[in-house]
Design a protein that fits this description.
Helix content is about 35%, strand content about 20%. The protein is α/β, with parallel strands linked by helices and about 425 residues long.
Length: about 425
């Protein structure tokens, strides 16, 4: 018999807020976190805007002497994981440590540190390379640092699946617990690559918005005037526990995670498969795994990046999976406010979906002023909506044709 798995803690840090509550309040209010880039100054790069986490002080979460040993993507994940652990009140002891794991990944890892250290090397040679360089940039160190800080001795894994990283992490962690291999997992994603190589690289692909004069209006999923996505940074973490393990310690339960789907397009390195068929298979797999009817899904947090083909093909995929219900289920892209957090997107959007369910508030898709005729679903345009629902789906799709979907349900004994 499959074990039931529940969410007992959440933590996020986003361009909209420095903690879970302020981020959620900003999302519910439809506030954009997009603004001019302050982390570097290169006027030759066409895109000059991003969703930065402004005012973040790593020293609130990490000992000052340890900060310089990590790149920013690790700082943000440590902060969000501490929020989630404090929220869950999960205590890791010698008796349960080997039954609790960490599965937190990133899409690109320590790219800013690679830039900095390479510049130092080119200027002054090998001896200017810090001995912490390699641990500073490799993605799996994020799970390593979290596990060491909390004492979790179970599986220690970092998923790297581009923009699907956070959702794959949560879904895979769910399955580890469901199979009985562990009892709890710290899971999610993180990213902090607002740097010349990343912004310049996405510009070279013609993927980013260049609406520099109106940064707050630049991320506009499903809108006919969109001109690309906006990069963001942040981290989103959830604490997953086996139901009886959580109940035994009297944990507060946000929701139950009931379904997970993962698929590959086997089509193109950056473009989604025609008609969104890979995304459709992924959503259908999650629905089947959850044991619910498509008509029971009450909200979809879309991948919705603000790119023409991505938005249109996700819309087609939703129609394919949900049939007539596609016209009734609310769909929104909170990337309209946060920007695209890449490897952190799925973690943050899972937390948003859980809080939306808890509060009975559908987050809006802001900047939806001129709907794309090919995008004709209910995207909760511009203003949040009060609406109770019992089942939420969160989608993430990444370069390389990698897709992930998770489904949450209000907890009932």
């Amino acid at each position: 018999m499959k074990r039931r798995v529940v969410v007992t803690g959440v933590g996020m840090i986003t361009p909209v807020g420095l903690d879970t509550e302020s981020s959620w309040q900003g999302i519910a209010a439809g506030r954009s976190g997009i603004g001019p880039i302050t982390q570097f100054d290169d006027k030759d790069i066409p895109t000059q805007i991003a969703g930065e986490v402004k005012g973040f002080d790593a020293a609130k979460y990490i000992e000052p002497k340890e900060i310089k040993k990590m790149d920013r993507f690790i700082h943000l994940a440590i902060a969000a994981s501490q929020m989630a652990m404090e929220d869950s009140k999960l205590i890791i002891s010698p008796e349960n440590a080997d039954r609790i794991g960490v599965m937190v990944g990133a899409g690109m890892g320590g790219l800013p540190a690679i830039e900095r250290v390479y510049d130092a090397y080119r200027e002054k040679g090998y001896r200017r390379i810090t001995p912490f360089f390699i641990p500073m940039v490799i993605v799996n160190e994020v799970a390593g640092h979290i596990s060491m800080r909390v004492g979790a001795k179970g599986p220690n894994i970092s998923v790297v699946t581009a923009c699907a990283t956070g959702t794959h992490s949560i879904g895979d962690a769910f399955k580890w617990i469901q199979r009985g291999e562990i009892d709890a997992m710290i899971a999610g994603g993180t990213e902090a690559t607002i740097c010349p190589l990343a912004v310049g690289g996405f510009n070279a692909m013609k993927a980013l918005s260049t609406r520099n004069s109106e940064p707050e209006r630049a991320s506009r999923p499903f809108d006919s005037q969109r001109d690309g996505f906006v990069m963001g940074e942040g981290s989103g973490i959830v604490i997953l526990e086996e139901l009886e393990f959580a109940k035994k310690r009297g944990a507060r339960i946000y929701a139950e995670i009931i379904g997970y789907g993962a698929s590959g397009d086997a089509y193109h390195i950056t473009s989604p498969a025609p008609n969104g068929e890979g995304a459709a298979r992924c959503m259908a797999m999650a629905i089947k795994d959850a044991g619910v009817a498509p008509s029971e899904v009450g909200y979809i947090n879309a991948h919705g990046t603000s790119t023409k083909y991505g938005d249109e093909l996700e819309t087609m995929a939703i129609k394919s999976v949900f049939g007539e219900h596609a016209r009734k289920v609310p769909v929104s892209s909170t990337k309209s406010m946060t920007g695209h957090l890449l490897g952190a997107a799925g973690g943050v959007e899972a937390v948003i979906s859980l809080l939306a369910m808890e509060h009975g508030i559908l987050p809006p898709t802001i900047n939806l002023e001129n709907p794309d005729p090919e995008c004709d679903l209910d995207y909760v345009p511009n203003t949040a909506r009060k609406q109770e629902f019992d089942v939420a789906m969160s989608n993430s799709f990444g370069f390389g044709g990698t897709n992930a979907t998770v489904i949450f349900k209000k907890f009932r004994n």
